Amino acid sequence: MKEVFFSALQLIGGIILCSGYIPQIVKVIKTKSAKNISLTFFLMVLAGVLLYEVYCFYLLSLGTGHAFLITNTVSVVCVSIMVILILKYGGK
C-alpha cells in the first residue's frame, strides 16, 4: 500500500514538472523566437534527464520505477523539443 502511495506521489509530481515545459514550448512556437532562452540551461537539463533515464531503466530491471520512467521519458521529450526550438528560433 505504501509503495502505491509513493508511486502515485511520484507520478503526480512528475506530471506537474513535465507540464511546466508546455507553456514555454507553446510561447516559442507562437512567437517563433527563443533568443532570450538559454540553450546551455536546456542542454544541461537534457543531460540530467537523460542520466535519470538510464537510472529509470536500472530501476525497471529491479521491478520498480514504472511511474518514474513514464514521467522522466515525457521530460526527455519536452526538453528535447525545447532544445530543437531554441536551435531553430534562437537567432531570430
Structural summary, described in words:
The structure is a single chain. By secondary structure, this protein is mainly alpha-helical. The protein has one domain (2-89): Monooxygenase (Up-down Bundle). Helices cover 83% and strands 0% of the residues. The chain is built from four helices and no strands. The protein is elongated, with a radius of gyration of 15 Å. The model has no long low-confidence stretch (mean pLDDT 92).
Layout of secondary structure:
Elements: H1 2-19, H2 21-31, H3 39-61, H4 66-89
Helix pairs in contact: 1-4, 2-4, 3-4
Taking the sheet with the most strands, its summary is: none
| SSE succession | HHHH
Sheet/helix structural class: mainly alpha
Q: What name is given to the CATH topology?
A: Monooxygenase
**Approximate strand percentage:** under 5%
Number of domains: 1
Q: Helix coverage percent of residues?
A: over 70%
Notable features of this structure?
92 residues
Summarize the structure.
With 92 residues, this protein is mainly α.
